[in-house]
Amino acid sequence: MTSGPIPMIIDTDPGVDDAFALVLALRSPECDVRAVTATFGNVGREQTFPNLRRILALADRADVPAAAGAVRPLVHPQAETAPDWHGVDGLGLRADAFPAPGPGDARTAVELMADVLTSAEAPVTIVCLGPMTDAALLLGSHPALIPRIGRIVAMGGSLGSGNTRGAGEFNIYADPEAAHRVLTQADVPVTLVPLDLTMRCAVEGTWLDELTAAGPRCATLAGTAALYRSTFLGRYGRDALVLHDTLAVLEAAVPGTLRTTAFRLGVACTMGPERGLIVPDRRPEAPGAPVEVALDADVDAVLTEILRRLTTLDRVAHAAQPGHR
Questions:
Q1: Catalytically active residues, by annotation
Q2: Quick one: which of 76, 260, 268, 84 has its CA closest to 172?
């Protein structure tokens, strides 16, 4: 643990909820965001990388290095994207409402991650908000840097029903082989934030109205939610928005916010309908390191705290994090 802000790398695939989550990290004083990286996922990396830089510009944090990550899964082609939820532009068909994207870093995502780990004076938390491909590549290509990772917090998976064409959750289904590497062989503490909890943390119109009223930048962020809300209403019959990734960021910023249960996990990497399924092994003698799976929280308090932090977006034009480099 560090006495100051937590050094942090965020790997993401913006994505509407990713945009909310990244702003949350940038507006959380506990987070010293050293790098952000963009992977394929909700849409292709040709969209997620400029989206990542648009979000940094919205938060007036173009000083944070942003690098392009994986364009495809480790083994098999990506089977599903999510333009019906996030729009073909990844930001709910509202990308043009964001500031122009700032410059990207010339390094690859893995190179940038490795450089941050090498130079960090304290253990670094890696937050994975999309497919875990970049994290898996980092672990595989730089094993000597693994002791410099304090914790991996990932949004993904489900111990119940998934949200893709089969049994899996989208982020895991997008690259199960990468998830298998991170969740079963990372050799660092891992916290997984699955659908079992995130689907209970939906926000509705009044929450979004309060965010919109907080200022023009907040209104731009809130405006990305319209398409997602419409799709959610059509699938679940409820006018709401589930900001999955924000829960992972809040837990990374304030460890212990979510209540976890330790499981040793398996990931189905077959090509059948079970692909991407997370399977807990509850045997006492099960091999491998346990993963802390977030299954409970004070939902009202969590959503109130996320809103409180997001509404600070318009209050300070720029506030570089202490120790940022």
A1: 244
A2: 268
Pull the structure tokens for residue 128: 């994975």
Q: Find where tokens 């510009």 sit.
A: 57
∠ CA 203-207-212, rounded to 5°: 125
When pLDDT is averaged across residues 268-287 and rounded to a whole number, the result is 91
CA–CA separation, 14 and 263 (whole Å): 29
Greatest Cα pair distance, the chain, in angstroms, is 54
What DSSP string runs through 5-45?
A: SEEEEEEE---HHHHHHHHHHHT-TTEEEEEEEE-SSSS-H
Q: Which residue has 């660092």 as its token pair?
A: 188
pLDDT one-digit tens code per residue, 199-220: 999 999 999 999 999 999 999 9
**How many C-beta atoms surround the C-beta of residue 178 within 10 A?**
28
Q: Is the pTM of this model over 0.90?
A: yes
Q: What is the mean pLDDT of residues 225-242?
A: 96
